[in-house]
Amino acid sequence: MNGLFSGKKIYLSHEKNPKKIPWGDHGADYVVEATGVFRSVDKCQGHITGGARKVVITAPSEDAPMFVCGVNEKDYKSSMNIVSNASCTTNALAPIAKVIHDNFQIVEGLMTTIHSVTATQKTVDSPSGKLWRDGRGAFQNIIPASTGAAKAVAMVIPSLYGKLTGMAFRVPVANVSVVDLTVR
Hints:
Elements: E1 2-5, E2 8-11, E3 30-33, H1 41-49, E4 54-57, E5 82-84, H2 88-104, E6 109-116, E7 143-145, H3 149-156, E8 164-171, E9 177-183
Parallel strand pairs: 3-4, 4-5, 6-8
Antiparallel strand pairs: 1-2, 6-9, 7-8
Helix pairs in contact: 2-3
């Protein structure tokens, strides 16, 4: 299936398996993996098999090298074919933490993030398998949530390992992300 964008032909696919997407046949060099499903090097390798040269994961990954602009992008090597750009919260937190840590040395810190509704939340109050609060309707409640941003910051700034902790709130709006960082 094809579409047009600004007069240019754009290839569209509905294939779920990255290995079966013919990226190379359509001249795609770079794939932005934003599904949230394929977050490891192994799972993203399918895009490379399909013909892409590079993959950027838009979420933290346990095994892909992680980069945040303004923090550690200089460590990127062209030989790295699959990388992670962390999360939106990590991209908000890491540059601030780097400036403070480079100039004053962070001993410990607490980050609080306020984040808009995500696709994993319930639209109305209903049962949840894990935590009761996860069953709350996304557009009717401010919902406490976990965040991996403090851990992800330590992946891009190793000297902050174990020094940051954090909490998150999901709020009933379509688009916002705020990070508050308190440090000692």
